[in-house]
TrEMBL record:
This is Ribosomal RNA small subunit methyltransferase B. Its EC number is 2.1.1.176. Gene3D superfamilies: Sun protein, domain 3, Vaccinia Virus protein VP39. PROSITE patterns: SAM_MT_RSMB_NOP. It comes from Maliponia aquimaris.
Length: 383
């Protein structure tokens, strides 16, 4: 495909997103029909679509309209690309720019420049104060790819060397002693032997840093109460060395791959449908707005509503109450979100200790995207 044809494909997908269809679904459908598209074409179209989702408002402003065509035009202008060459009507690309399109478009200000809906920009300001702007702007850019070195199988140096042999370049990252930032060859990770043999796993650096905060040691009875795909359960098992982690999720299907992932990693993880306790440590990595991870999943910015956020916050409080009942006397309850919003983070924890005064907060930390990883929050509580 020509660069212009890739732009045309992205325009059609952006129109589908504006009509309410999920981006992943539209990309899959396009991929099935576009048999002429090679892997580089698919990656380029995907990048256009996700770049536009990250900059949905500012791209529309810069392109002078809300159609897929206007947003793509605005995005390319923001990126400093030659829009006349890409909108020339040639090479299966979009039709030439009209005079009106050439004259339209403006630079953004306020919530538009932050690429957030107005109500969320206000939440960012209330939650993050002086860090709000930098956080919003960081979420407009692509995320780095991070690996977690599985210390059950390799040291950091061994993993880096094995990855380098397969053309994957990495560097350590200050957020976690197990984190490697991928600086080259990211597309080769999934088919690399280092990955297949369980030396490394894909996991954001701040997600790893959350696990680093947990008081883990081998022999502890540990439960990951909201295990999902098991990223944190696997990291916990690695930290514990010989210990075992119990994993639970209200939607057990989400743990479907966990047994195979644990086997690959050499980690002892048992999935349970109704954990009984007591446990010395229970982690609740709760469902959340995902606002800290909007670089990776930018559609969330535009699909989240105030009503949905309130529902999620109520669910987080219920999960905390349920999980607390599984902790042994003197044990630890840990809470994590990939959110930067106060109502899901410090305010949620303040509400919990008000409801359950026997619990006290031992530590809590907000990780922001400006530190390199996703935005995460973690609180460790003891009773
Ligand atoms: C943020 S995700 C977990 C991600 C996972 N810990 C990881 O690191 O890969 C939150 C999970 O909580 C689960 N969940 C939702 N409601 C729950 C509940 N009431 N009890 C336990 N898990 C719940 C969801 O199904 C989802 O898999």
């Amino acid at each position: 495909m020509t660069p212009a044809a890739r732009v045309e494909a992205a325009i059609r997908i952006l129109d589908g997103i504006a009509a309410g269809h999920p981006a992943e679904q539209l990309l899959t459908t396009w991929g099935r029909t576009a048999r002429y598209a090679g892997s580089k074409d698919r990656a380029a179209v995907r990048d256009h679509v996700f770049d536009a989702l990250r900059c949905w408002r500012s791209a529309a402003a810069m392109g002078g309209g809300e159609s897929g065509r206007a947003r793509m035009l605005g995005l390319l202008r923001l990126q400093g690309q030659d829009t006349a060459a890409l909108f020339s009507g040639e090479g299966h690309g979009p039709a030439s720019l009209t005079e009106a399109e050439q004259a339209a478009g403006h630079a953004s200000e306020g919530a538009e420049a932050w690429d957030l809906p107005d109500w969320l920009a206000a939440q960012f300001r209330d939650s993050l104060g002086p860090a709000a702007e930098a956080t919003a702007l960081a979420l407009r850019a692509r995320a780095d790819v991070f690996l977690r070195v599985n210390t059950l199988k390799a040291t950091l140096a061994e993993a880096r060397a094995r990855l380098a042999d397969e053309g994957i370049e990495t560097e350590p990252h200050p957020l976690s002693p197990t984190a490697l930032r991928v600086t080259g060859g990211a597309r080769a990770i999934a088919r690399s032997a280092a990955y297949a043999e369980g030396l490394v796993d894909l996991q954001d650096a701040a997600s790893q840093a959350v696990v680093d905060m947990l008081p883990l040691s081998s022999g502890l009875r540990v439960l990951d109460y909201c295990a999902g795909g098991g990223g944190k359960a696997l990291a916990m098992a690695a930290r514990m060395g010989t210990g075992r982690v119990d994993a639970h999720d209200a939607a057990p299907k989400r743990m479907a791959d966990l047994t195979a992932r644990a086997a690959r990693a050499g980690a002892a993880i048992r999935t349970l449908s109704s954990p009984r306790g007591p446990y010395e440590l229970v982690l609740c990595d709760v469902p959340c707005s995902g606002s800290g991870a909007w670089r990776r999943a930018p559609e969330g910015k535009w699909r989240l509503t105030e009503a949905r956020l309130a529902e999620v916050q109520a669910l987080q409080a219920r999960i905390l109450d349920d999980a607390a009942a599984l902790v042994a006397p003197g044990g630890t309850l840990a809470y994590a979100t990939c959110s930067v919003l106060q109502g899901e983070n410090a305010a949620q924890i303040a509400g919990f200790v008000r409801r359950r005064p026997q619990w006290r907060v031992l530590s809590q930390r907000q990780f922001l995207p400006a530190e390199g990883g996703d935005g995460f929050f973690a609180a460790i509580m003891g009773c």
